[in-house]
Write a structure and sequence with these properties.
Layout: E1 25-30, H1 42-48, E2 52-56, H2 64-70, E3 77-80, E4 87-88, E5 99-104, H3 107-116, H4 118-121, E6 125-127, H5 149-161, H6 164-167, H7 171-197, H8 204-211, E7 216-224, E8 238-246, E9 251-256, H9 267-271, H10 275-279, H11 284-294, E10 300-303, H12 307-314, E11 323-325, H13 326-334, H14 341-348, H15 357-374, H16 376-379
Parallel strand pairs: 1-2, 1-5, 3-5, 3-6, 4-6, 7-10, 10-11
Antiparallel strand pairs: 7-8, 8-9
């Protein structure tokens, strides 16, 4: 991995990064869920702009660095975010030096960040309609006028500093990243076509899934997750909800565990479980003991990715059982990638609610994926 751009060295774009000094101070406020996105552009933009700073979080009322940047009288802060009162920054850019504040995240995430930070809501607001569609061909935008963070900064800085051509060079590393991703995607398609053409047999993992149906146990874990705040101590995610089902018999397991460090602000809402049930639950050791009694020595655990099992073991739980990642097996069966369990559930029309909270809904989706991958329809691959 390249320590600078945080990309694999085979697709590092550092050699294409321009250095663009600016009179405008740029402050990017990034939602935590965007921080580790390999195809994000906020970090790339910050590498192009020496007079910029990137902060990760959801709220910044107690962050002295952000507060200082947004209250700089010599370069008053303006927010690049659409709204009824927003001026067109391309047609009416503010005069004099300013601090340009940009929120990085999906539209839903950005909306929440602006809503939850009063200091952002009070800033003069600017926006624009992109003169041409985004070049972000690896990520679908909601409309032709919507562009990526680095493209937004290119347009805004070009207007603020009167030199659109100079800031167009910010798209050089952006295009390099997009081209590399598309080349990788096409290479994966070609490998898949060759696999289908040769009619390769199922992988050993898929064969195991189809021959050991009676031993499969689907498991889902949910975490008590504290929000990320740059430069501050953050408690580790800890397991608080664990559910399982044996598809062959319909036997189910569900257990809650009381959080060790208190309940994080959004945990109950995200898990769709009443907070009083979570805090009043027995210690995690009791959940581990009950689940140990539920499983058998011959069982095989079916998961979606590795997050659930990392949560389980991270809290001291022991699971010396074979594991199958249904996300990978379903991709083998469908001959395409399924990004999330929720996407698969929506594709097959599963209900969006469960009496056992979000974990129950995800478990039902996982069981459905397991049944499909083990079925004759899935076996067609």
């Amino acid at each position: 991995m390249c320590a600078r751009c945080r990309r694999p060295t085979s697709v590092c774009y550092c050699a294409t990064l321009p250095q663009l000094p600016t009179q405008t101070r740029v402050v990017v406020l990034q939602h935590p869920r965007e921080r580790d996105k390999a195809i994000g552009t906020a970090h790339m933009a910050s590498l192009c702009l020496p007079n910029s700073e990137l902060h990760v979080g959801r709220t910044w009322a107690d962050d002295p660095k952000v507060q200082a940047a947004l209250s700089n009288a010599a370069a008053p802060a303006v927010l690049l975010y659409p709204g009824p009162e927003a001026k067109d920054i391309l047609a009416e850019p503010p005069t004099g030096p300013v601090t340009l504040v940009v929120v990085d995240g999906t539209w839903s995430q950005a909306k929440n960040v602006v809503r939850d930070n009063e200091m952002l809501r009070t800033l003069p607001r600017y926006a624009f309609r992109a003169p041409q569609p985004s070049e972000y061909r690896i990520r679908r935008e909601p409309s032709d006028e919507v562009v990526s963070t680095i493209e937004s900064l290119m347009y805004a800085l070009g207007a603020l500093e009167g030199d659109a051509e100079r800031f167009a060079s910010m798209l050089v590393p952006f295009r390099a990243m997009v081209d590399a991703q598309l080349a990788f995607k096409e290479g994966r398609r070609q490998r898949l076509r060759k696999r289908v053409a040769r009619e390769l047999p199922p992988s050993p993992e898929l064969t195991l899934l189809r021959t050991r149906w009676q031993d499969l146990v689907c498991v889902v874990g949910e975490a008590n997750a504290w929000p990320y705040r740059e430069g501050r101590h953050r408690e580790r995610d800890e397991l608080v909800h664990w559910v399982a089902q044996r598809p062959s018999t319909g036997e189910t397991f569900a257990g809650l565990a009381a959080p060790t460090h208190g309940l994080a602000p959004s945990t109950a809402k995200n898990l769709k479980v009443a907070p009083e049930y979570i805090v009043a639950a027995p210690p995690r050791a009791a959940l581990y003991g009950a689940f140990t009694n539920f499983v058998r020595p011959t069982d095989i655990l079916c998961t979606w990715g590795g997050h659930s099992l990392r949560l389980y073991r991270g809290g001291g739980g022991e699971l010396a059982l074979p594991e199958l990642d249904l996300r990978l097996l379903l991709a083998e069966v469908l001959r395409r990638r399924v990004p999330t369990l929720e996407v698969y559930a929506a594709e097959v029309g599963l209900p969006l609610v469960s009496p056992n909270g979000r974990a129950g809904y995800r478990l039902a989706s996982l069981v459905a994926a397991t049944r499909f991958a083990a079925s004759d329809r899935g076996g067609a691959s």
